Amino acid sequence: MGQSESVLILGGTGQAGAGAAALLRQWHPALPLTIAGRDLDRAQRVADELGAATATTIDLRRGDLGLPADHHYSAVVAALWDDRLHGLRYAQRHGLPYLSISSGLTDIAPEVVAGAQRANAAPILVASHYCAGTVVLAALHTARRFGRVDSIRIGAVLDETDTGGPAGIADLERWSTATTAGLVRRDGVFHWITDPDAQADVRGTDGTGLPGRSIAILDVPSLALATDAPDVRFDFAVGESTGRRRGEPASFEVRIDLEGTDREGAPISTSRYLVHPAGQRPLTATGIALGVERLLGLRGEAVAPGIHTPESLLDPAYAVQRLEETGATFIDTPGGG
């Protein structure tokens, strides 16, 4: 499918937006891209590096985003926190697919309501999961060998130097202000948990433990409802990653533990790490790029209007393939299946 109109990337000068734009340019060289930010010079630099891309400024306080009325786009990506939802409203008014990554579990209600009120306007991909849904997709790819999944436990280490720039830090602060409770699924029921139940020891690939806690994150309901696993938990720790302890750049580390049965009913379990030596940016960028590719119909059939999540649209095997192309790898733990 060809595209004559441009993908508008709000926050396209940030780590996530610029990274996603670079992947889209690599995967689809002819796809027009518009890098939108508050600083035109910075946006132009990103656009020039991409080639065949344009730059523009935006004003998120305005319903029209400060964009000329005669400019037309093929999709809107919010790679930043849009507290007035003007990006979403702009997309709905123009019938454009929309993707967001910064709302988090505690802030998606306005997006969901907006989508329900204008259900036929355009598809909305809510990808405010960890690393834009790539961890969910990796876990679902791991679960493919299971006949029944009984429990899923995710343990993520975010290096304190790899929080994604000012926008990423602001997101973390906003989410922690909204709630300090964690969301888990236990015996088929979603529960809010607080200390001490929320506390957890999160271990990196070298076995070093960091103090972490269960968090309220979209990955929990996405994994629970996609697999019907009655027990799901996502623990999160911020600290020094294994890569940095080795004197290397900050690394990305997520442990994925699953228990259940195989297709013949025999008990099985698996434990593996999804890692990337360059930190979280490549995974978040891949999640955004996969979502845009799918929303535009560049891979797969057309996406219907309404609310969508990454696992409802994207093939886990294909997502893992794309992650591995960026340098991500899986490391099985001893005795992990």
TrEMBL record:
Tree of life domain: Bacteria
InterPro entries: NAD(P)-bd_dom_sf (IPR036291)
Listed name of the protein: Saccharopine dehydrogenase
Species of provenance: Streptomyces uncialis
